From TrEMBL:
Secretion signal span: 1-16
Source domain of life: Bacteria
The entry's keywords: Signal
Protein name: Lipoprotein
Length: 104
């Protein structure tokens, strides 16, 4: 049981690391999109979404180890998607104001 709990913690930590936006782990919702170029905004959202999507692989692997770990991984992914959607709402007016030709 201790082994499964330990593996669950490691797997959850690995998944959480997959949904960070940069080396300093700045929250996507804390970014001031006014300070970014259109290309930087697009790159930020694209990379973040790719990290979330790649977490499906980790979730599947974690599910082999423990259903509890899989549930934790799914919760982490849901939270990451919530953050993505909040940031998207925050960035949309900036994207429109700057006339960015991007779709996030």
């Amino acid at each position: 049981m201790k082994k499964i709990t330990f593996l669950s913690l490691i797997a959850s930590a690995a998944l959480a690391g997959c949904v960070t936006t940069s080396d300093d782990s700045t929250s996507l919702t804390d970014i001031d999109f006014n300070d970014l170029t259109c290309e930087q905004i697009e790159t930020t959202f694209t990379e973040y979404k790719e990290n979330i999507d790649s977490s499906d692989t980790y979730t599947g692997l974690v599910g082999i180890v423990s259903s509890e770990a899989e549930a934790s991984a799914n919760t982490a992914k849901a939270q990451a998607m919530d953050m993505y959607n909040q940031a998207k709402e925050k960035a949309q007016p900036v994207i429109e104001f700057k006339n960015c030709d991007i779709n996030i």
